[in-house]
Amino acid sequence: MYVATLIANSKNRNLSELILKQVVNDLGGIKYKVLDDNIAIDINLVSEPSNFEIVWKQLQKHQIDIVLQPIKNRRKNILLADMDSTMIEQECIDELADEAGVGKRVAEITKRAMNGELNFEDALIERVKLLKGLSSDIIVNVLKGRITLMPGAESLIKTMKRNGSYCALVSGGFTDFTEAISKMLGFDENRANTLLHENEMLSGKVQLPILGKQAKVDALIDISKKLNCAHDDVIAVGDGANDLGMLTKAGMGVALHAKPIVAAQCKARLNFSNLEGLLYLQGYSKQEIL
User: Fold this and answer.
1) Are 93 and 110 in contact (CB under 8 A)?
2) How far apart are CA 75 and CA 242, in angstroms?
3) Could you tell me which of 51, 97, 105, 201 has the fewest CB atoms within 10 Å of its CB?
C-alpha cells in the first residue's frame, strides 16, 4: 500500500475538492483522508502509479506539493534537520558577511556551494576568512536582528517531541547559531562547525575538521545507532548540496524549497509547504499539530 500526500501552501489554502477528485481519479486512489481542510490530504493507493511525475508537474502549476511513499512506517522516530534556509529563513554566514560589508561576495560563494558547484569545505574556509576582525558581539546582534524561524518550525519540533521523536539539528553552519536555535526550538542535540574567536573578535578561521556532507551522514548513522533505530526510522530535511547524503540515506529525505541539484535527487520535494508539511507527510492531522 502507498499513500500520496497533497500539501498546499498554507497561505493559499487552494487544495479544492475539484483538484482532489482529479488527482484521485488520475492516480487510481481507493480512498482519501483530510488532514487539514484545503491544505493537506492523504490518498491511499494499492500500488505505485506510473503517472506520478505527470500528476506532480500538474499540481506544481497550482503551487501544490505531492509526495508518494509506502504507507508502512511513515511516522518517524528521529528528525535530522539542516538549519540555514531550513529551520531558519536565512544563511547565517551571509548575514555575518553583510554586517562586515562583504555580503555580496560571500552570498555568491554560498549560493554556488549550496548548488554543488563548489567544494563545501573549501567554500566555508574562504568565506570565514572574510569575517576576520569582526567583533564577537556580532553573533548576538545577528541572532536578535536578522534571524527568523522558518514557518512551521516550532510546530514541527513540538509535535514530534510530544510523540516521542528525537530531534537533532545538524548544520554546516556554526555552533554560535545552532546552540541558540536548538535551545529556542527544543532540539535534543545540535552539531555544527565552530567559529574560532581571538580577543573577542572572529579570527577568520573555523575549527577543523569541518562538518560537511559526510558529517551529516555520520550524524544519521551515530544517532540511529544510539537510539537503536533503523535508518528507515529517520526523516531528514534540508535544502543544499551538503544535505544530499543524509537526505538520500534517511527513510524519508525531504528537499525543502531546495536547490535544483537537491530536488532532482529526492523523492520528497516540498516547494510550497512550510515545515508543517513534514508532519503531514507522516500522517499527522491538524488536530495533532501543536
Assistant:
1) yes
2) 25
3) 51
Residue from 84, 176, 239, 243 carrying the catalytic annotation: 84
**Angstrom distance (rounded) from CA 184 to CA 189:** 12
Judge if pTM exceeds 0.85: yes
84 is catalytic: yes
Q: What cell was used for 247? A: 537526505
Residue in 121, 146, 116, 133 with CA at minimum distance from that of residue 239 = 116
Domains defined for the chain, CATH in brackets: 1-72 (3.30.70.260)
**Burial tier of 91 (Cβ tally within 10 Å: 0-12, 13-18, 19+):** buried
* pLDDT in the model for residue 116: 85
Angle at Cα 275 formed by Cα 140 and Cα 48, nearest 5°? 150
Which three cell numbers, joined as nine digits, stand for 90?
A: 536565512
Q: What pLDDT was estimated at residue 239? A: 96
Is 26 designated active site? no
Q: How far is residue 28's CA from residue 22's CA, in Å, rounded to a whole number?
A: 10
Residue 27, pLDDT score: 97
Q: Which three cell numbers stand for residue 186?
A: 527544543
Kindly give the parts of the chain with pLDDT less than 50. none
